[in-house]
Structures are given as C-alpha cells and as structure tokens.
Amino acid sequence: MQGAWASLFSGGKDSSFALYRAQMEELPVEQLVTVHPGEDSYMYHVPATELAGLAAESIGTELVEVDPGDLDAGTVTDSGAQGDAELEPLEAALADLDADLEASGAGGLAGITAGAIESEFQTSRIEAMAERLDVDLFAPLWQRDPEELAAEMLDAGFEIRIIQVAAAGLSEEWLGRTLDRDALDELRALGEEYGVHLLGEGGEFETLVVDGPHMDRRIEWDASPVWEGTRGHLEIEDAWLE
C-alpha cells in the first residue's frame, strides 16, 4: 500500500522495539502517535508518556499527541466498553492524520505499528481499528516468545529502564533499574515464585527506553521513587537529551 506509516508509541520497550523493527523492514514511518491516558487504562501504557516528545526528538520523527479524555470518573464501568471508549480518540487522530497526509501529497496513511505481545484485549481492538481505517497493521512482537524478544532487544542495544512496578516480588529497588541480563535472571526467578511475566505483560512493571539504535541521543532524567506499600513509580522531575 502506498503512503506513510505511523507508529503507536509510548516510549516503552514494546512500542519502541516495534518501531525499530519497522525501520529495519524499511517501512516509511513518518509519524509517532502517543496517547496520554489517565491514571488507569485498559488500552495504553500509562507512566511517563510525557517523555515521548523527547524520545521523538531523539528518533527524529514527528510526534502526534492524543488526549483520550477523562475516563477515570467511573462513568464507564465495563472493561470492554472502556477499552472501546479509550480507542475512539486515537482512531479519530489517525483519521485526521490520514487526511493530512493525503492533502500533503504523501499518499495518506498506509499502516500503523503496534507493540502488542500477548494482549488479545488490546490487539483485537487495534486490528479492528486498522480495518476500519483501511490501513495495514505491523505487529512484529505479537505472540513471540518472551525470552527471544528480551534477548533481541538487548542484543540490538536497547537501554531499558523500569519506571513502575506493581507485583509481588518487585520492591522499590526495581524503580529506575536497567532491564539487563542480570535483571532478566531475577525476573525469571520471580516468575517461578510469583508468576511475574518476564516482559511485564501482566502489568507487573512498565518501562522507558532511554537509548537504542533508533535514537540519536540518550534520555537523561532527575527522578525520585514514589512507593505506595506494594507498588510504586518513578516521579520524573526533569528530563533532557544527552
């Protein structure tokens, strides 16, 4: 299909690796699209999406930012309905992007990338959205073996930091930690003891990619841990490109 591609992008490891894989396949990714959800989301990576702008600058690709509106007030109680409602602003933004790309002579929106690995809840909705928009979907991580994916990310040179944890076995000391081979060894042990997924697919932890082969400059930050008894996150106080 002729036209430009957009990458659904949070700055976390999965969406970043999907973008990198798209670049390796020479897909013409000309836009990154970041949704800034509220405190809880069924569809999107939540923490530190405000750093997507810095990541986009380092990557050298224009960023489209989407506000999904306030869905935290309890007006939508069914998870499926909330997932659908969260998707609507993203679909509208992609439709607008398609029109803009068509008007600019770029041939419209040809496809989107997504970093989904195991979530049928998310992937089925993104697939249906791509079909409604009549664009292709590139989801190179989908149903891949977590061990292989983790090795590929590290072998490619991704520097991945853990910015939120919410699972038994993951203490405050994990906040800010680099997801390297030593960390993966510990996560395997926690998986055996507590069921922690190696790549955090159950929401056990969230990440931010601060450097990688798709980036020209590394993200640096000043941050403080916020611990809430059984879960916590990094409060990013300042961030910049190296």
Report on the architecture of this protein.
The chain has 2 domains: 4-138, Rossmann fold, CATH 3.40.50; 146-241, putative n-type atp pyrophosphatase, domain 2, CATH 3.90.1490. The protein is α/β, with parallel strands linked by helices and 242 residues long. The strands form 2 sheets. The protein has a 5-stranded parallel beta sheet with strand order 3-2-1-4-5, with helices on both faces. It contains 6 helices and 9 strands. The radius of gyration is 17 Å and the shape is globular. Helix 3 runs parallel beside helix 4. It has helices at 13-24, 52-59, 79-103, 120-133, 146-156, 181-194; strands at residues 4-8, 29-35, 62-66, 109-113, 136-138, 159-165, 205-211, 219-227, 232-241.
